[in-house]
Amino acid sequence: MAEPVLSARNVTKTYGTGEVQVHALRGVDLDLYEGEMAVLLGPSGSGKSTLLNIIGGLDRVTSGAVSFRDRDLTNVSERQLTRFRRDHVGFVFQFYNLIPSLTAWENVALVTEVSKDPMLPEEALAMVDLTDRMTHFPSQLSGGEQQRVAIARAIAKRPEVLLCDEPTGALDSTTGILVLEALSHINSELGTTTAIITHNAGIRLIAHRVFHFVDGQIDKMTVNQERIAPAEVTW
Fold first, then answer.
1. pLDDT tens-digit map of 27-67
2. CATH level 3 topology of 35-61+85-232
3. CA angle 158, 231, 185 (to 5 degrees)
4. Which of 58, 55, 217, 92 is nearest to 166 (CA)?
5. Is the pTM of this model over 0.90?
6. Could you give the dihedral angle defined by the CA atoms of residues 47, 85, 68 and 147, in that order, rounded to the nearest 10 degrees?
7. CB-count burial class (<10 Å; 0-12, 13-18, 19+) for 116
8. Are 14 and 24 spatial neighbours (Cβ–Cβ below 8 Å)?
9. Is residue 151 within 8 Å of residue 167, measured between CB atoms?
10. Are 61 and 11 in contact (CB under 8 A)?
11. Is 22 exposed, middle or buried (0-12, 13-18, 19+ CB in 10 A)?
């Protein structure tokens, strides 16, 4: 494979001090490659979200190293981390974090106003099949539609990496599949390196590679030789 877009090397993360310590990550190595879709699979508390926050620049390692392309992110300043997140990473979380008083279009436009080379908000919303819902407020949208607005907001700045933490966790199977279809479409159309955190084992089959987390470590990595379409996922 080519050089990785994001890398973690022997990453540990420990919370607490003294006798009360939680070892969230225990020496994790991970590479994410350009254009791939990866799934980080494991139960709650296995370290998936902690790792995503670290490689996305939302948190820092206790030890180890993180890099973006050829740039070491481990000891950069908070301002540099903020710039890294703004310019290179899109985030999608389980809960949509939309501003209730703004329409779908306006929620996406907030990101495009501070980006270097953004899409038009309507272009990003079209990619998640919400052209006819642009003027609706979050309260007028279903859970799946709100999550797709959140995805449109994340991709509108054209990030090189899209990090998704349980993006279907609050959704039923029908709306969850629509969200997975949106993520798959973005991955294939834009070539955006995409990582999805989930505890739903069925979702692993849409990925190129799957990282299985147990107790703060990657227990194994598997490669899908034959990926399935999101509509085929068993919930």
1. 999 999 999 999 999 999 999 999 999 999 999 999 999 99
2. Rossmann fold (3.40.50)
3. 15
4. 92
5. yes
6. 60
7. exposed
8. yes
9. yes
10. yes
11. exposed
